[in-house]
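Subject: sequence -> structure tokens, single chain

Hey, anyone have a minute? Need the predicted structure for the following. Not urgent.
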Amino acid sequence: MMYISPARADGFMKIGLVYYSRTGNTRQVAKTLEEKFKEKNAEVDLIEIEHVKRPGYFTGGKASTFQQELPIKNNHFDMQKYDIIIVGSPTWSKRPSPFVKSFINKAENIKGKKVAVFSTGMSRINEREQFKEIIKNDLKNAGMKTFDSYLALQFKKEQIIDGEQNIDDFVNTVLKL
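Reply:
Had a minute. Here:
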């Protein structure tokens, strides 16, 4: 069954799936979500945030703890053509990656856009309240419409060990936004 977005007359929802991945786990989830959305006839652009320098765990954790930005290569993000933006981030020190904060502060035409979020990490998925609050506030402050559409996945040695069962529900919820 084809999903027809109320936002688009052509029947296709245009999704900008923006993510940062240090180890490849968040990229793996982004590609899985891309496939799932395409199966539902949504158009998806994967947009990977690229770091200038790959941070060590101490540097990345410190920047995340203090909610500092870290420099990114791709500084031009025009989000105008998207109906929905999905933001994906690893969980560092129970917070979003600093590179995602850099994206939020540099992106153009994001005011009023609908946004959903997913996180990856080794921490248990029920321990990510701080992550959710911080990213929700950052997105709201940028003028985006946040919803309770949130997907958390727990990894161990590059394998999803919890949360995979929630992927289809997340996709269906996002398509109804």
